[in-house]
Amino acid sequence: MAATIKDIKDMTGLSLATISKYLNGGNLLPENREKIEKAIEELHYEVNEMARGLVTSQSKVIGVVVFNIANVFTCTLLRFLGERFREAGYASMICDSQNDEQVEADNIRFLMGKKVDGLIVIPVGRTPEFLEPALRADIPIVLLDRSLKGSGFDCVMVDNRTASYQAVEMLCSYGHRRIAIIGSESEFTGRERLEGCLQLLKKEKIDIPPEYLKLGLHSIEHGYRSMQELLQLEVPPTAVFMGNFEIILGAVMALNESAFQCPADISLIGFDDLIISNLSNPRLTLVVQPLQDLADRAADLLLRRLEEGRGAPRAEDGQQQVMENEELILPALIVEGDSIKRCSE
Amino acid sequence: MAATIKDIKDMTGLSLATISKYLNGGNLLPENREKIEKAIEELHYEVNEMARGLVTSQSKVIGVVVFNIANVFTCTLLRFLGERFREAGYASMICDSQNDEQVEADNIRFLMGKKVDGLIVIPVGRTPEFLEPALRADIPIVLLDRSLKGSGFDCVMVDNRTASYQAVEMLCSYGHRRIAIIGSESEFTGRERLEGCLQLLKKEKIDIPPEYLKLGLHSIEHGYRSMQELLQLEVPPTAVFMGNFEIILGAVMALNESAFQCPADISLIGFDDLIISNLSNPRLTLVVQPLQDLADRAADLLLRRLEEGRGAPRAEDGQQQVMENEELILPALIVEGDSIKRCSE
DNA sequence: TACACAGAGCGAAACGTTTCGCGCTCGCAA
DNA sequence: TTGCGAGCGCGAAACGTTTCGCTCTGTGTA
């Protein structure tokens, strides 16, 4: 149905090779160039990427496997990644692992069948076995936001540990000692952030009683319930660290429905992905993740690997070049608002 | 690098045709079947979908073009769509139009080059020109959540008009007459919802003063600012209709920061996509959109079209079968909470 | 005038599958 | 014993590109 290069051949009288040359930016006589352009216009010709891919063995598709697509963090990254890849001539094929390692493994296999040229992965679990089919296919892989055991992978992530360390440090510097944490132990970034917090608390010799440690999912629900419970304690905390965007959302809702005021009665700091900073009143003090940067760096790294792969698979001396894996750890930024008050107790 | 059918041929001594038959579920001697399975296992063979696609002229990829990927509504739909398509053996290739009609048109062209088998589109604008390349390629298209001028397209959407009509009707039935609307005129669903509201207000002979009509984007920001402004009016409304999830989020934040109480001082009803219903206190009365249903119906419709296309392109009598386009309008559900109070004024 | 060389076009093979139509074998019935 | 048909397997063509190496033309140089 659709026009092919052959139709253009018939229309212009030129050979397939010449037309292909045109499509790939070669030199032709202006006269022939015009003929081809006219034919393309008239026939609405579009290159069949499947045929092209078959012979070049490049699909010009990048697989993106995310731990969970239905949240703001992921979607925002997807937007930035998609833009970047498109500019470079690649499509992205997105697969949602739904927080399930089994699904994740299926996704990788699936994408291998589709012959993707490279892979961006925000992994669900902590071990890298599921990537085996991709390693075997020898395509570049960049991990995003979370790393995997054993390393050896290219990876772009946020320095969660330092950022949460500093966040809690800030609470302490305002005199707080009764500090609660709403976070997650079941997600990679949650664990990192938790460790950062605990590390500082340890250094400051502050004990955190179990009822101040609210671990669950990175969800609105967990944030909401946890904050409710914290406020109902006999001795509620004077400050709360909130582990991600959804938790903030839930926690702030719970707080607003209570009699407590921020920052008068309780101080807040949280890990954010987005715009909430502009909104709430008082403005929240936030750890802001560099989402655009995160996505851009990951995309650039992958594109560079693809370039390298095509360019020189072997070093000049004939020896196999062993590539160093690159691990980029981006700092998060603490944006001060008015949600932390000096603690007098 | 990767194993091909040819390697299996060499390993088993069988012919390409036989192996292909195996891959496509044909009958073979158990003995040969075993040989092939063993070879596949050992060589880690995976079908090269590009080669397959070239000959079957099916890419087994569905293009999904969304008006804006970075929001909860879209992401949730994407999750459901993706699941459905995967089950049916299709991958989805997602393109974000970023609310820009130019980008949207590019997306369609791009996907045509990728030879997608079908298209799900949540369109940005109101006119269908941008779909022309897809129409020319004669692949099935299903519009989701928003329709286009001139129709003739398959389409699955929510009955926004009736739902918002009923929502405001409910406010009225509680005695409210000073009703404000926070919504959008720049988005298709926003317009539909607005019309539903206005229709009921007209029927009830209720005037809506301009300062009660807050039109902007479907964003947290717009919700937040609008609610702030409403509450600062000399004569604030006694009830507010909120046009979507993000608007609710912002509006509720603003409300919680104010001295106003819901439902004592102000009643609320809003269009939701998600879980907020379970959380806020008092529980919001909500118009809940059937997201799963929306996605499933759209996916099923598209898959059916793909089936039809392959099965019988022509009717038995040899005449071209003109397919009726299908327009599914799903009802939204009003879930009662405690956010509406009888109005005594 | 002869020669070399650059630039442009061409034919054919290759990429990894599917599919069509033919031929072989085997078992069963007459 | 012969004949027949079902069930498997096979060879070859086809899908729409790219690419390699060849030929041809025309220009500039010795």
Describe it.
Two copies of one chain form a homodimer. Residues 312-320 of chain A have low confidence and may be disordered. Chain A is elongated, with a radius of gyration of 26 Å. In chain A, helix 10 (220-231) crosses helix 11. The longest helix of chain A is centred in the C-terminal third of the chain and has 21 residues, at 291-311. Chain A has three domains: 5-56, 434 Repressor (Amino-terminal Domain) (Orthogonal Bundle), CATH 1.10.260; 61-158 and 291-330, Response regulator (Rossmann fold); 160-289, Response regulator (Rossmann fold). With 345 residues, chain A is α/β, with parallel strands linked by helices. Helices cover 44% and strands 16% of the residues of chain A. In chain A, strands 2-1-3-4-5-11 form a six-stranded parallel β-sheet. The interface between A and B is large, with 58 and 58 residues. Chain A binds a DNA duplex (30 and 30 nucleotides) through residues 4-6, 14-18, 20-21, 23-24, 26-29, 32, 47-57.
